[in-house]
Specification:
It contains 1 helix and 7 strands, in the order H-E-E-E-E-E-E-E. With 88 residues, it is mainly β.
């Protein structure tokens, strides 16, 4: 199981925010069986990707402008990082 600690959480970069079509996620470690999930504010999952590398480039050009919740979930789902992202 992977556990996020405060230092690792603080070193995760998610940019640009706000974004137009692409979001980059830079992790200070290789997570393995962890999931990135993006949901709208109604809670509907609209994007999901597993088995992350240290640098992720997410093409979110299909999303409409608005506010979304990006989750980084550890493989056993007992550690979740939530981050608000905005598409313009």
């Amino acid at each position: 199981m992977f556990n996020f600690n405060k230092r690792e959480y603080e070193n995760i970069l998610i940019y640009p925010n706000p974004f137009i079509n692409t979001v980059f996620i830079i992790l200070p470690f290789r997570i393995g069986n962890t999931i990135i999930r993006i949901s709208n504010l109604q809670g509907m999952i609209i994007f999901e990707k597993a088995n992350l590398e240290e640098v992720q480039k997410l093409d979110l050009s299909d999303l409409k402008p608005g506010i979304y919740v990006l989750e980084i979930i550890s493989e056993r789902s007992d550690n979740i990082i939530l981050h608000k992202i905005v598409k313009i």
